[in-house]
Amino acid sequence: MSEWAYSIEGFDRTVHRVEGVETVTYAIGDGDPLVYFHGGGTFHGFEWARALAGRFRVYCPYHPNFGESGDADFTGIGDYVAHYELLFPALGLDTFHLCGASMGGHMAARYAAANPGDIDKLALVSPAGMQSDHAAMPDFTRIAPQDIPAMFVADPAWIVRFWPADPSPEWQAMRERESAAAFRSREDLAMADKALRTGLKGFNRPTLLLWGEADRIVPLGYAREWQQALPHAELEVIPGGSHLLLDEFPAAVEALARFLEV
User: Fold this and answer.
1) How do residues 191-248 score in pLDDT, each as one tens digit?
2) What Å distances lie between residue 147 and 140, 143, 155, 166, CA to CA?
3) What does DSSP say about strands 96-101 and 56-61: parallel, antiparallel, or unpaired?
4) What is the distance between the alpha carbons of residues 262 and 60, in angstroms, rounded to a whole number?
5) Which phi and psi (to 5°) does residue 88 adopt?
6) 239 CB neighbour count, 10 Å cutoff
């Protein structure tokens, strides 16, 4: 993985094959288990998890069709949920904290709704999947490709090393594979919204909604919908925060840790 800008030094790497699908998981730290579901791209790695390594054992699986994991004929979030229902026992996980960001937040919410007994605490970082009259995600077909990377961050200079202007063929192939997989996983928005609201009805595990104030990918306005679906959830907004919230803002990682440790 030397062609990538992030480091995996200090992480333990495991590979599991579940129903013919190979999944690579990186883990770091000691303590209560925390599983992290990444969003629609893995180009920035899991560097933020290092800050929690003294307090948690952080598991960062690459979803099938993403990163180092193998290909899978998955066409919706439900396929990923079913996959993780089999992978977690293989990882030796019984109950655990679950955190997901963006697409991974949608996935984490759906997993928690289907398997509430597995969850100690749930943290959703600017999760996708809801419909809203108060916010809208950008139409990337109307945005110049060179302008897209800066939309994910508060400081455009921060993302340059992870999303280069002149990427290598390997980086470009990875990005195209993951973008295609993320697109295939998108369900009809009305159906996804209904599945989330129905599935989370009565979900009573401690839950955190963590959002960046200036998120331009899944804007803060969506938080209102998630608060309706999860009325007991705490909402914490990081001032000036971006979409790559855990990666770019250490304050977001500390907010996550505080929630999990209470």
Assistant:
1) 999 999 999 999 999 999 999 999 999 999 999 999 999 999 999 999 999 999 999 9
2) 10, 7, 13, 14
3) unpaired
4) 22
5) -60, -45
6) 9
Amino acid at 99: C
Q: Which residues are within 8 A (CB) of 9 and not within 5 positions of it... i.e. 6 or more apart?
A: none
Locate 128 and state its tokens: 């996708």
Q: How far apart are CA 186 and CA 199, in angstroms?
A: 17
CB under 8 A, 24+ apart: contacts of 174-183: 174/42, 174/43, 174/67, 175/41, 175/43, 177/65, 177/66, 178/40, 178/41, 178/42, 178/65, 178/66, 178/67, 179/40, 179/41, 180/65, 181/40, 181/63, 181/65, 181/66, 181/74, 182/40, 182/41, 182/103
3-state secondary structure of 90: helix
Q: What pLDDT was estimated at residue 57?
A: 98
For β-strands 12-18 and 234-238, DSSP reports them as unpaired
DSSP character for 89? H
How far is it, in rounded angstroms, from Cα 72 to Cα 63? 10
Mean pLDDT, all residues of the chain:
96
Nearest CA-CA partner of 218 in 121, 100, 76, 62: 100
> Which tokens is 53 given?
């390594």
Question: Is residue 7 within 8 Å of 45, Cβ to Cβ?
Answer: yes
Domains in the chain, please, with CATH? 12-261 (3.40.50.1820)
For the entire predicted model, the pTM comes to 0.96
pLDDT in tens, 21-78: 999 999 999 999 999 999 999 999 999 999 999 999 999 999 999 999 999 999 999 9
